[in-house]
User: Fold these one by one.
Assistant:
Number 1:
Amino acid sequence: MLEAVRRAGAEVLASCEQGTCGRCLTPVLEGRPDHRDSRLADHQRAAKDCMFLCVSRSCGDRLTLDLVRTLRPLRGRPVAICSLSTAL
Ligand code: FES
């Protein structure tokens, strides 16, 4: 998912890119994430309301993410925030 978000033009926070550091944790607004990380507890996976972008995928054709907290801040420049929907 991280690759798809970056291809869509969003600069998002990520560090390990292996599903272990937690930096890219992102709320899921709509759709079903396919969790591939090693951090989420079973109840968090079942809730399907957040995901680690770096290793996880989408179970369906469409996943809507709330990237407000995951976007990389741009120093000295205004940042326009919008909801990004990625059709896979
Ligand atoms: S970048 Fe570390 S968990 Fe995604």
Number 2:
Amino acid sequence: MTHPTIIASESTKAETRHFVASPAAAVPGSCRGFGVHRFLSVTVMLLVSCLLVTVTGCQMTRRTTFAAHLPNQHSVRTKHFVIQSDVPIDAQDPLVKELESLQETVRTTLQLPEQRDPVVVYLFSDEVTYRFYMQSTWKDLPARRAYFVGTPRELAVYSFRSPRLQEDLRHEFTHGILHACLDTVPLWLDEGLAEYFEIRGCESGESHPMHVAELRRAMEEGWNPSLYKLEVTTDFRNLTQRDYAEAWAWVHFLMHTKPQAREVLLTYISSLSKTSTPKRLQPDLEKVMPEYFPTARAHMEKLQASPSTVQLTSPPTPASPFLFP
Ligand SMILES: [Zn+2]
């Protein structure tokens, strides 16, 4: 299976990705949350034997003596994804239903074109096996609890069974859907949408508790949002926890304020299926909605001021001791 659009688009997208010579030389990425959040997201481009690879990811831990192999004992195949697991899983598993529902939500909410290829979800039975595989395969990648890796061969999500699996998979699987439907996704939007869709009920406007808290801290410090700054941030290592919160907040603003703002976003996303070198979104937004900045600022103030009614799909847990290997 090949992903010619990804190869073509990403090979011309040096401005939005980080390139390295090989998996073994992949450089550490920026961490969202700095030990506070349940996973850290990043998009990295890896150049592997002249083939370009998209990586987004979460937490990884130390090397062990476990064998490095992909889960392969059980699998569930649907129209849009395949789950491979060493733990029994069938089509009625709640996880399968969750991903089926999420795929439909993402596709219909964003009016995405037909998904070209399935996303392959490698579900490790435990963290030790997962982390050893990831460290053996993608040496020197930053510590993450889950990864999305897009290669010309497949669009793959890697994670392991944990109390936070559902929430991790919602985030990484959203990356997979986007890259399965579009030629390219700018860094800020890739993460903003993944953060947006990891919350159940997001399409109805549910907010993200962690990002709301971060926005509150930011505004107390006199921070102001800047879509321009996010759009020109092309190195994932420069993304901070606040950047992730802001990317989520811009998506939430575009989706849930005025119809013309939502239309600008959907038109922009539609353009990403036709080009590998997308323009910035802000000029289009400013043209359609000259008052976009004060409106967005007011929306973010409203978000940070109102207590969230939604909880993450699993309770917060202490940061992993392996968060910063
Ligand atoms: Zn991500």
